[in-house]
Amino acid sequence: MKTGADLIIDTLYDLGATEVFGYPGGTIMPVYDALFRSLERGVPVKHYLTRHEQGAGFAAVGFARATGKTGVCLATSGPGATNLITALADAKLDSVPVVAITGQVPRPLMGTNAFQEVDVFGLSVASCKHSFQVMDQAELEDTIRQAFFIANDGRPGPVLIDIPKDVQMNTVVKQSPLSLPKRPEFMTNSSQFEQARDLISQSKKPMFYIGGGVDIAGGTDKLRELLNLTQIPAVTTLKGIGAVPKSYPHGMGMLGMHGGAGANLAVQEADLLIALGARFDDRVTGKLASFAPNARVLHIDVDNSEINKLRQVELAINCDLSTALPLLLNELTGFGDLATEKWQPWREACAQLKVENAWRYDFPHEGIYAPKLLNQLSEKLPDTAVVTCDVGQHQMWVAQHMRFESSKNHLSSGGAGTMGFGLPAAIGAKVSRPNDQVIAVCGDGSIMMNIQELGTIKRFNLGVKVLLIDNAKLGMVKQWQELFFDKRLSETDLSDNPEFITLAKAFDIPGQTITQANEVEAALDEFIAHDGPYFLHIKIDANDNVWPLVPPGAANQDMIGQDQKVG
Amino acid sequence: MSTQEANAGLAHISLICSQSSLLLERLLQTMRYRGFTVVNMNSMELSSEETEVNLLVKGQAKLTTLQKSLEALIEVQQCYLTEDQAKLATLIEIGLPSIYSPTQLSQPRTVAESA
User: Whole-model pTM?
Assistant: First the structure.
């Protein structure tokens, strides 16, 4: 006879979730006991013990984002479960398929303020795509299968399953029938794509606006065919980075608050935005009323609630991009000649904007200039390398100065902007892609939020490389204080940071600190070549800021600091 | 103040949902998050599987975004919304029961739109 906990492990195994992240505790102990016995029972599920539940949550996110598979994390009730919530909220905002399983106090104790009882089921309402509380062991398998389905269906997102301890311990005598919902079919029709073709062919200045939804839908290959066919200029969001290949001559890079000036100015001139899996986020649009003021909008997205939410569109197609892109491609076949001739002046104008606003790295700089270093790192890495980020200035520098061949190789907390994301996300990425180079680019503020996960890296000897960009400040907040709060630097000084290399060595992870530009080349080579985890600590000038910047409430063409972008 | 003025910004939403212990919390959270307050509501169990929920909501945010967000919830099977002032007046007068016939309720979800 199986227990509920055995059935949980069996179902995870059957669903292919053979690597999970978590942290044990009182009410999830039956599941951990079943994990312990999973190998001998012939359903091996490998568990990665993190040092904090938030680490487990972000590792699951990193695992999912680097592969497209479902990430799984486990935690106990009460504080264990609440520690997962930030990672789940992050997964919701970035549309990441994650299933979180939390223990709950036994059913007779529920609602009594029992030890480690928190209503995590209620807490999950705002942070998860869906959530379940399983009150009968007969429903466990069906619920877990539904959770995996929901996490991946349509716009992906996190699903929480809260399971009382006695439900885990009870013997499963019979099971409820499986009730997996049917995947809804999108009723697209050819007239929509004919209209899309007409919009595009009427346009003189079309621009692809690529969001994270393209990669999530598995649409990157078709997008690239579309780009090759039309040669239309393209900008990406933070999460869309990597969808447009590095070699595409009309790729304009990232747009938005810290986007490239060329990308932002080109979008402002466009007469048609072809928005694919993007959501007109405020960090992208700046002042909404002034965003791409001359453009009609063709919006294709799987989430109907994103359509016309912020920007009224000319034509909306509510459809999974894996379905829509082949149809659009089919509709545009034969565009080759038109594309070559009609849009050439527009392509040349975009190319000119790119040249005029190209990143420069020749600013005289005694210390280490992080954008240049990241650009050097990018040049040295293979196309298969995965880079995770924390949140802040270093995150924007990665987005601006590193180049990626796949959105699955650039894992950055976009919607939630969660500091502390990078290190545990790198753990998840490395577990899912053990043969690929995985680098966590962290800030000195962010890394301290989940620094304990160095212990996880060491425990499993994961070859995660940590590149710490240290300006002894909460740099992005400091930058805003300088610009918008009359230089009142309130609580952003971190000059009392720990000695990071000593800290890394305490976890038995080797590393070095560099402070001078002439040390960069050799340090990066050693960093990349080192077999196993490594910690490269880079001290930079705290006066270096991220440019350009669109001030809050300003239009994207009114970005500031362009003249300072070289230093 | 005329009835029409009093009802400005009001909308009635009728939902057929699958049963879930978190259903009402999720519906109310969605209303609040999308910028609406609930003026009145009732729910009625249709079967062991289904519940009908009727809500009168008020707010200045986009109703279409609210409607699409509700439709995206796993539990919501059908969603019918009206801002029609005459219907609203009737609904308020009779205490907000569902006034929609099954045929009206079963209209398909919006799967594509052209604006």
Answer: 0.93
